[in-house]
Design brief:
This protein is α+β, with helices and mostly antiparallel strands. It is built from 2 helices and 3 strands, in the order H-E-E-E-H. Strands 1-2-3 form a 3-stranded antiparallel beta sheet.
């Protein structure tokens, strides 16, 4: 089984925007992105590596049509 990539919030945000997600709102350290009824909440702490569950959610949201 392939290892999951380690992403920072900035890298994950870049991938979400390229995949067509739009930043809808931001509250505190969380940014909420939408695309076609699909929502992704990204905790945004600059320079810190995201938790593997968050990375998995981001990657599965990007890979869905």
């Amino acid at each position: 089984m392939a290892r999951q990539p380690r992403l920072t919030a900035l890298e994950a945000e870049r991938q979400l925007l390229v995949a067509g997600f739009v930043l809808m709102r931001s509250k505190g350290s969380h940014r909420i992105y939408f695309r076609k009824g699909q929502r992704v909440v990204l905790p945004f702490h600059k320079g810190k590596v995201l938790h593997p569950k968050i990375v998995r959610q981001v990657l599965s949201a990007i890979n869905q049509p």
